[in-house]
Amino acid sequence: MTDLSFSTALCAALGLALTGCAAPPPARIEASAAPQWHASQPHDGELGSLQAWWSQFDDPLLAHLVTAAQAASPTLATATANIADARAARVTGGAVLLPALDAGASASRSRAQAGAPLASQTSASVQASWELDLFGALRAGANAAQARVEAREADWHEARVSVAAEVASGYADLRACERQAQQLDADARSRELVADVSDAAARVGVRSTASADLARASAADGYMALLQQQAQCALLVKSLVALTAEEEMALRRQLTAQTARLPRPREFAVAGVPAALLAQRPDVRAAEREVVAASAEVKQAAARRWPRVTLAGMLGATRTTSLGLANDGGVWTLGPVTVTLPLFDAGVRRANTDAARARHVAALKTFEARLRTAIQEVESALVTLQSAAQRGGSAQSAVDSHERAYHATAASHAAGAASLFELEDARRGLLLAQTTRNALERERLAAWISLYRAAGGGWRPNTPVH
Asked: What is the pLDDT of residues 121-149, one digit of tens each?
């Protein structure tokens, strides 16, 4: 075969490798979800973007803490590093599809035999090697690397949403704790006042000493409950400091502006059908990309069982000098074309293919489980919101009724018409009603935060990593 005909055949083979034999790009795995929700939507909710949801609260400190926590989060830093690793792997996977080029240079000075003139030789060359992707193994590897980049980017967004939800939950816990501490403080002061009145009445003989002792014991119990609650609030502040990396004294000063006040979120509605919502979940996207990557790796492992064809070549220039005469010229080689045919590897390639298929099945099962979990999380948050809304009016009515009953019993006790036991029973009923109402408000806020996270936190496909 002449040089020209060989080059023509080689170009034809390269064209085939780059077009007809190339593996297709990664496909998207379609989500199979229920056609509708089985839980009621929040009343007056709007279907809108959640990207700036935290800034729409009536408490600007919460948005500040979320931003600070995301900046300080080691989880987000790790997710960023994982993206960098995946992108490096993508570059490697794409590089093997192209020729590898190396430049070389050499110089020598020699005397072939005694009495012979000195000779100098210099040369420079470029060597190239290229594995022809005849069966799509290299392209499949590049596709798997690309899918994993997209999965790691989705993981980063999932980490961002998780950090925001964790900070918001901790902040809500703190505000609910402060509210409970305020009520326990008022309760403790009321108990102390009753104890003082009982002591004075016992000294003049109007009340028994036992009654005064019981009132004093009740005051001590109320004070202990207050101290315990205050300690719990202090621990929650320190948790926020750890999450946000804020200076503690500065954070405490900021917290005083909204003490004991639970932030109020903007209500929103989820997508009308579950399948639309699944497209907003970065964790579902990551699982789906892992399925695509695993599928590409199956194709890659299977293609490795077929022959591999590698082409090499060199182009260079040389200069030889002897006896004052110089000889310049170009040199080149095309080839060899190396064909590697697997004959016997003790089952290694077959085992690798089987392992890749098993990883693909595992990735698919993980994806399906992620879909079910996503639906369950949204449904649970919607059920909790509905339940909290239904119980809210009853909880407030109970607090109002217990307040009236307590004040009436306190007035009767002061006039000597009600016993201390009756007063303490009314006090316990009021405190329990207030605690229940506070817990219900905290539960409702927690459900909104859970729904925010379950709805993907405002993520959309192709959202850039900041």
From this structure: 898 999 999 999 999 999 999 999 999 99
Instruction: Look at the chain and report how many structural domains it folds into.
Output: 1
- Secondary structure (DSSP) of 258-299: GTT----PPPB---SSHHHHHTT-HHHHHHHHHHHHHHHHHH
19, part of any domain: no
| CATH code at position 38 | 1.20.1600.10
R_g of the chain, CA atoms, integer Å: 37
Phi-psi region of 268 (alpha: psi -120 to 50; beta: other; left: phi over 0): beta
In a domain, 11, yes or no: no
Task: Report yes or no on 10 lying in a domain.
Answer: no
Distances 268 to 42, 49, 55, 393, 449 between C-alpha atoms, Å: 7, 9, 14, 21, 11
Q: For the segment 11-62, what is each residue's pLDDT rounded down to a tens digit? A: 333 333 333 344 454 455 665 666 777 777 776 566 667 878 998 899 999 9
- What is the domain extent for residue 93? 32-99+142-299+352-454
Of 138, 151, 147, whose CA–CA distance to 95 is shortest?
138
